[in-house]
Amino acid sequence: MSKSDTTEFELGPMNHVGVAVPDIEKAITFYRDIMGVTDISEPEILAPQGVKYAFVNLPTGQVELIEPYGETSPILKFLERNPKGGQHHMCFEVADIHAAKSVMETRGMRVLGEPRIGAHGTLVVFLHPGDAGGVLIELMESHKTCEATDH
Ligand code: CO
What we know:
It is a single chain. The protein is of the alpha+beta class and 151 residues long. It has one domain (3-141): Roll (2,3-Dihydroxybiphenyl 1,2-Dioxygenase, domain 1), CATH 3.10.180.10. The protein is 21% helix and 34% strand. The chain has 4 helices and 8 strands, in the order βαβββαβαβββα. The chain has helices at residues 24-34, 75-81, 97-106, 147-150, and strands spanning 14-20, 44-46, 51-58, 61-68, 86-94, 111-117, 123-127, 137-141. An 8-stranded mixed beta sheet has the order 2-3-4-1-5-8-7-6. The site of cobalt (II) ion has 7 residues, from β1 and β5. Residues 16, 18, 64, 89, 91, 119, 138 line the site of cobalt (II) ion.
């Protein structure tokens, strides 16, 4: 990290922890029947990212369950190494994804790909785990509130 880098950047709230699972229905059953979570979304497919996902909604955030979808799903490799599934990424909100990407690159982070629509319907990028303490970090642009444009 360069000491001359004075760009303002503040990480927003932690939004969710991504958990890769081989069978999303089984994972939902686990969180519902064993862990007692009542608010779990129906699984949906996000084809461009190769995932079927569901949100386990808790007061402080979410667990994002992700099952591979399609032959080229990036989750397949992870499940090869972790056949029972496991913690895959964690996600923090940022105000502006393009600004965040630029700051991260300036600070020497490898940003994986261009901002793209994630499971929450806002733009996301991932940071290379090799530059982030072994953790795959997802940065997600916060939802903009409608009120902001109504005034
Ligand atoms: Co995620």
